[in-house]
Write a structure and sequence with these properties.
The chain is an alpha/beta fold and 469 residues long. It folds into 2 domains: 32-290, Uncharacterised protein PF07075, DUF1343 (Rossmann fold); 309-456, Aspartate Aminotransferase, domain 1 (Alpha-Beta Complex). It has 14 helices and 12 strands. It has an 8-stranded mixed β-sheet with strand order 1-8-7-6-2-3-5-4. Strands 9-10-12-11 form a 4-stranded antiparallel β-sheet. α2 (12-24) packs parallel to α14 (444-462) and α5 crosses α6.
Length: 469
């Protein structure tokens, strides 16, 4: 168990003090130099670590989730790929590179990173690598994707969601550096960060440099929520690669930094981790208070069900809560992760019972939802009406509570194999045991108070890896 994980398991106040001392190296009140997020690249190898501040940040706007912040610049944020191009590809010039990416790997104008690097002067793009859903992003979730030849470039595409999820030595032959350009959605179980982590391990083991082109966390960098990942559920967990809460508040570049700097995150010998070469090309113009609509960027679907920002917001709200039992999301495929229905109750009853929980920041409204036999019915659509009050994961646990009310307790009857899959997503078995014992009498608020205390400790500790204020 890493020191980071051990500290998070201590009582909250003790853990907070120890984490601040260990990760910040001093009193939290000691003044420090700002960390410069506008550098074209940040190298993380064996060089001494630069001092960092007790970070300050602007609070998030109280605007509803769909309201876009006005900006004179249609593109206020430069992505990592934009910065790389603006710096004349200095980080990759003269190198033979591989590229791990997907359809959302585009610059702020919408041009594919594949095409930018393929035509960049002095850059030799020799192989492509695809995560879950494939290089083209059209494969369903959890379905293996075979390796292939990309018809547009003629380059070999190595699938990292087939027999191997960690690149083999043969897959890395002939490259000097691996460029990673993946759009994450800020939720622990979304597997692109797992693909990055395993790729970092393989590259460090084979003396291949890793270059991460950073991208926004679409939920912003201030939302941290949900249960942490217990150490027992970290081993070989593709939906739980990092020791973070379910909503982690970091960019993919910041997660890469955690993997490089924190012992025990990468599953490789510590000496190999320390020798590994990581370059992060940070964004320009992005701040932690920014949600995706604040960036001015167009959302490119990251997977078949994450088609827009509404689905990004919904994924951490209902993904866990619809995994066990008969709750379903999508209402006919029209509203992934936002529309809810249960075959045993009407939409009116579901709305009435959800309203009775008084879940902060949420509003429920009736929508049409086809039943299992095709007959018309009603479901509930979930709106986020107060971003500051909203806890992204809270609704899940009330759905689990209702699942025990609407059916014979599914958490007692579900086969252990599926329960293990649920626990890999959840990251902790305490709430499952409470559901199995208490059913719909489970005290959701008590669990949330504990998670909130631990999440505050994590957020303070994770500032060590922040690249942006």
């Amino acid at each position: 168990m890493s020191a980071f994980s051990r500290l998070l398991r201590r009582p909250p106040l003790i853990a907070l003090s120890l984490l601040l001392f260990t990760l910040l190296g001093c009193s939290a009140s000691q003044p420090r130099r700002p960390y410069e997020p506008i550098l074209p690249q940040i190298r993380l190898d064996s060089a001494p670590e630069r001092p960092r501040p007790a970070t300050t940040y602007r609070p998030a706007s109280p605007a509803p989730e769909w309201r876009q912040t006005a900006s004179k610049d249609p593109f206020p944020v430069m992505l990592g790929i934009d910065v790389l191009e603006a710096e004349h590809f200095a980080a990759v010039r003269g190198l033979r590179i591989g590229l791990l990416t997907h359809p959302a790997g585009v610059d702020r104008r919408g041009i594919r990173t594949v095409d930018i690097l393929r035509h960049a002067p002095g850059v030799h793009l020799v192989a492509l690598y695809g995560p879950e859903h494939g290089l083209n992003g059209d494969a369903p979730a959890s379905v293996r994707v075979p390796s292939s030849i990309d018809p547009r470039t003629g380059l070999r595409v190595y699938s990292l969601y087939d027999r191997y999820r960690k690149p083999t030595r043969d897959m890395l032959k002939g490259i000097d550096a691996m460029v990673i350009d993946l759009q994450d959605i800020g939720t622990r179980s979304y597997t692109f960060v797992s693909a990055m982590k395993l790729t970092m391990e393989a590259c460090f083991e084979n003396n291949v440099e890793v270059i991460v082109l950073d991208r926004p966390n679409p939920l912003g960098g201030l939302k941290v929520d949900g249960p942490l990942l217990d150490p027992r559920w970290r081993k070989n967990n593709y939906v739980g690669a990092f020791p973070v809460p379910y909503v982690h508040g970091l960019t993919i570049g910041e997660l890469a930094r955690m993997a490089k700097e924190a012992p025990g995150v990468l599953n490789i010998p510590d000496a190999v981790r320390q020798r590994g070469r990581l370059v992060i090309v940070p964004m320009r113009g992005w701040h932690r208070w920014m949600r995706w609509p604040d960036t001015g960027l167009r959302w490119v679907p990251t997977s078949p069900m994450i088609r827009d920002f509404a689905a990004v917001v919904g994924y951490p709200m209902v993904g866990l809560g619809t995994y066990i039992g008969d709750f379903r999301h999508g209402v006919g495929g029209l509203a992934p992760f936002r529309g809810l229905y249960h075959p045993n109750v009407s939409g009116e009853q579901l709305k009435r019972e959800l309203d009775a929980f008084h879940i902060p920041g949420l509003r429920f409204r009736l929508v049409a939802a086809p039943m299992r036999d095709g007959r018309p019915g009603t479901g509930v659509y979930v709106d986020v009406v107060n971003w500051e009050q909203w806890h992204p994961t809270e609704l899940n646990f009330y759905l689990m509570k209702l699942a025990c009310r609407y059916d014979r307790n599914p958490f007692r009857t579900t086969p252990q194999g599926k329960l293990n899959g649920f626990l890999r997503l959840m990251g902790s078995d305490a709430f499952l045991h409470a559901l199995q014992r208490d059913g719909d009498r489970v005290d959701v608020r008590a669990f949330f108070r504990d998670w909130e205390a631990r999440d505050r400790i994590y957020q303070q500790a994770s500032k060590r890896y922040w690249l942006y204020n």
